[in-house]
Design goal:
Arc Repressor Mutant, subunit A; 50 helices; 63% helix; Rossmann fold; 5-stranded parallel β-sheet; mainly alpha
């Protein structure tokens, strides 16, 4: 059964009302004593107090008092816990300050595949930096935000806020931000209950001038004391006293805590309203925002606008949300109590009220609110149909979290008979990490599709277009699930199936699926097929006008090219993407600094260490200037390899330690084909620390008899290097034979899968194994093949890194006229490769004996000597070219070995032991 669908006309409902800066009226009590406490030169002003203390009114007065300072205002509610929606509202609010402000960051946020929120916020911060005048962002009712990702983003924003920007947060509770740190730095202004309470003079002005009462100073004092300056309590008391003749008796009887005051006074206020007004209040209590037309629909009357204006004139806890007085809301405190009363008095009427509200929202194109009220009315069929209509838009805007909340509110039996909804459910579950629940929903959809072909009335479908694309969507969902489970073969199968089913005009889906297929090919050991498919996906995104995705994916293309032994191609695609990035203008796009990272890796492989270092520095400078995160661990890995090439193995090991600390498995299946721990084991071999290297082999459970796979190829090649080193040290024939056998199997696998990059490295290690065995013919045979494959791409590092054994083989190759020009170049490079720089500590220095049970390592001695200077921790880290966390790790070890607990004691103890 097909149900007709309405077009989606609005994606940001009530945008103007949410960003409306409340107007402060001179008729209200002025609070200049508080206005002067807000210091816009500090990063954050926090106005924190329970409901009813006048937070919003105070900030409206402050904004009115500084009209020359542009203010952006966001009124928050529960629906804003969706991160995509929250940041969209926040950035859009900033455009009230400057219309073009945030255009780049908003486009990134709303792109089909947005970058990390840190990247979006750094782009926003770059745009804010260009604003010359001082400006303010106010987040009202921040206590409704419960999403940790949003809190984290606000914390990040605060940490990098430009000096001309000031943030004000109004909340019923302290937000989970680093308030103590801001406080200690003098960057925080706090206004709390003790500040916001009405003073006796303010209470008198409010009651007699603001509320039109004429009560004595004694009565004002009594009310102020009993409410403790709580503004909402005073307003309720004033409403209750209007028209009374027994005011002294009322004041005398008035006492109790906040909750008692609310119950008592609201009862008084409601009871004193005309029945027409009271009924209107209870009927409209379900609405988060009120307009005349909406209230007419809910109350089934035609006096909504008149009633709203009457309530505003009577100060009955109603707040205008726009200049035209078209939209209002009840004070939150008042709304809570009205809803409780409505539910208590009219429980049977509530579904009907929600239903009428939902119909009005649907007719006016406000589908999110229509869904919310349909769910509240238990009209699940209507809600399900609306969710299906909203699904494509919500997915495009990365709002799966909201959709998940909607769908889980529906009866399960209803979902199972709606194939579009079942697939949407599967995808939002996948996005939420609930992998085990996905397949059942996809099977429900397939069952519905099969049933629809036999009995169309048995299945409910809102949109025929979505129905036609379901087979492709199901295959895509299965591909993503397989990817999340690292099931490479299934990822390939389903991604290929999806590409066959997807129509050509489904560009975004085709782009993401082609890219996903490329990653799966690479993971399975087919980097060339992976390159073609991934490049196809990026080309689609570029054609769609999404160059940021194409640029961000180039690092992966470069890594695939290097895996395939195509170094020149890696250089070309990086340079093309750098040109594309330059053409975009504006802030640095995410992924641009990583292009320099890839170029550095290629130059390193080609033996140009100076160029590699310079390119890496350019990329790192760009990354820091733009404050982009990117794959932080990769920067440390490349730095470590360059340090090792300079002979500074200790620093390289420290940098690998930091890389390992920062590494986390990516949410997309980028294969970790070069594990940091394996690279560290290779450096241990070069240092002669064979015991540690063998320990790594044991910890990883590696064996020469393992089943081979591309994902573990680097580890198995490292195992072969360890076995060769073990043979050189201990002359264990079995170790060498095992290494040669393993290398033979690795070579066969790489040749079968046509991985030229792997073939070159395997042949080089194989040549070293034969050389260690004394089989010169075998060594030269392997080396000749490696040289022939490597020469066109200009490989250097892989031949010169092994040192003396390779030098002897290359000299032999020269005598046999094997690639003579290339081989001569390699011999020249080998003479200086791995040699310590003039200012670096040399590995050949024999350390003095230490009178310690557990001696300090060379790196720990380096740190200890710097502890004996005036350098701070971060300065020591910069001096040693390592992370601060690495310095801290070394320092803890030094303290432990010296049996001290602080820096001063460590220096003193080291001097006593002649260590410094």
């Amino acid at each position: 059964m097909t149900v007709s669908a309405r077009p989606i006309t609005s994606e940001l409902p009530f945008l103007e009302t949410k960003l409306y800066l409340p107007k402060w009226s001179a008729d209200l009590v002025s609070r200049l004593r508080l206005i002067d406490l807000i210091h816009p030169k500090r990063k954050l002003t926090l106005v924190s107090a329970p409901a009813g203390f006048g937070k919003t009114t105070l900030l409206a007065e402050w904004a009115a008092a500084v009209p020359t300072r542009p203010v952006a205002w966001v009124s928050l509610d529960q629906s804003d816990n969706d991160p995509a929606l929250f940041w969209t509202y926040l950035i859009t609010a900033l455009q009230k300050i400057q219309p073009s402000l945030g255009e780049r960051s908003l486009s990134l946020l709303q792109s089909p595949q947005p970058p990390s929120i840190e990247s979006v916020l750094m782009t926003l911060l770059n745009e804010l930096t260009a604003v010359e005048e001082d400006c303010v962002l106010i987040l009202d009712d921040y206590h409704v935000i419960e999403t940790q990702a949003i809190h984290g983003g606000i914390g990040f924003l605060l940490g990098h806020l430009p000096p001309q920007m000031h943030l004000i947060i109004a909340s019923r509770a302290d937000p989970p931000l680093s308030l103590a740190r801001l406080r200690s730095r003098g960057e925080l202004t706090e206004l709390r209950v003790s500040d916001l309470r009405f003073t006796p003079d303010e209470a008198a002005a409010f009651l007699n001038q603001g509320m039109g009462l004429e009560i004595s100073a004694v009565e004002v004092s009594a009310l102020e004391q009993r409410t403790e300056g709580w503004i909402a309590g005073l307003q309720l008391a004033a409403l209750s006293m209007q028209g009374r003749e027994d005011i002294p008796d009322f004041v005398a009887a008035f006492s109790g805590d906040d909750r008692y005051i609310v119950d008592y006074l609201l009862e008084e206020v409601l009871q004193r309203q005309p029945e027409r007004v009271r009924r209107f209040l209870l009927q409209t209590a379900i609405l988060e925002r009120l307009s005349g037309s909406l209230c007419d629909a809910v109350t089934d009357q035609n006096d909504g606008q008149e009633m709203l204006e009457t309530l505003e004139r009577g100060n009955l806890f109603i707040i205008p949300l726009d200049n035209k007085r078209q939209w209002y809301r009840y004070h939150h405190l008042f709304a809570d109590v009205l809803q409780a009363h409505a539910l208590m008095e009219w429980p049977e009427r509530m579904p009907g009220l929600h239903g009428r509200a939902g119909e009005w929202y649907e007719q006016n194109g406000l589908f999110s609110d229509a869904i919310r009220h349909a769910l509240a009315a238990h009209d699940f069929e209507r809600a399900a149909g609306l969710i299906e209509q909203m699904w494509p838009t919500m997915r495009r805007r990365q709002r799966e979290t909201t959709v998940l909340g909607w769908i889980t509110s529906l009866p399960d039996s209803l979902i199972r008979n709606r194939p579009v909804l079942s697939v949407a459910y599967a995808l939002v579950l996948l996005n939420d990490g609930q992998l085990d629940a996905v397949e059942a929903r996809l099977q429900d959809a397939e069952r519905c599709l099969a049933a629809d072909s036999q009995d169309p009335l048995a299945v409910v479908v809102t949109d025929d277009t979505q129905l036609q694309s379901l087979p492709a969507s199901i295959a895509n969902a299965r591909a993503y699930r397989a990817q999340a489970l690292w099931d490479v073969s299934s990822t390939v199968t389903y991604a290929q199936q999806a590409l066959e089913l997807l129509p050509e005009d489904e560009e975004y889906e085709r782009g993401t699926t082609a890219a996903l297929l490329g990653l799966a090919y690479w993971t399975s050991g087919r980097p060339e097929a992976g390159y073609r498919s991934f490049a196809e996906g990026l080309a689609i995104f570029k054609q769609m006008g999404l160059p940021q995705i194409a640029i961000g994916g180039t690092l992966i293309l470069a890594q695939m090219s290097m895996a395939q032994g195509r170094l020149h191609r890696a250089i070309n695609i990086c340079e093309q993407s750098l040109q594309l990035a330059a053409e975009q203008g504006g802030p640095v796009l995410p992924g641009t600094p990583e292009l320099y990272l890839a170029l550095s890796e290629v130059r390193y492989e080609q033996g140009d260490l100076a160029a590699a270092s310079q390119v890496l520095l350019s990329g790192e400078t760009l990354r820091q200037q733009a404050s982009l995160s990117g794959a932080k661990f990769l920067w440390w890995v490349v730095q470590a390899r360059l340090k090792a090439a300079e002979g500074d193995l200790e620093t390289a090991l420290d940098q690998l330690h930091e890389a390992e600390r920062l590494y986390h498995r990516a949410s997309i299946p980028v294969p970790d084909v070069r594990p940091v721990a394996a690279l560290r084991a290779r450096l241990w071999v070069r240092q002669g620390r064979l015991t540690e290297a063998l320990g790594w082999v044991s910890d990883r459970g590696l064996s020469v008899d393992d089943e081979l796979s591309y994902l573990h190829e680097y580890e198995h090649l490292t195992l072969a290097r360890v076995l060769i080193a073990q043979y050189r040290r201990d002359c264990i024939d079995n170790a060498l034979d095992q290494a040669i056998g393993l290398l033979t199997r690795l070579l066969e696998t790489a040749e079968a899968e046509e991985r030229t990059g792997s073939i070159i490295e395997i042949l080089v290690v194989q040549a070293l194994a034969y050389e260690a065995k004394g089989d010169l013919a075998g060594a030269i045979s392997s080396l000749e093949r490696a040289l022939t494959l490597a020469e066109p791409e200009g490989y250097v590092r892989i031949f010169v890194e092994p040192g003396t054994p390779m030098m002897q083989l290359l000299r032999e190759a020269i005598t046999r006229s094997i690639t003579p020009t290339y081989t001569t170049r390699l011999l020249t490079a080998l003479e200086t490769w791995g040699q310590p720089q003039d200012d670096a500590p040399t590995a050949s220095v024999v350390p003095s004996p230490q009178p310690l049970i557990e001696p300090l390592s060379q790196r720990e001695l380096d740190v200890l000597r710097l502890l004996n200077t005036e350098l701070s921790g971060p300065e020591i880290a910069r001096e040693l070219v390592v992370a601060l966390s690495t310095v801290r790790t070394h320092t803890k070890r030094i303290y432990s070995k010296l049996n001290v607990t602080n820096r001063r004691a460590a220096v003193k103890r080291a001097a006593e032991l002649n260590l410094i």
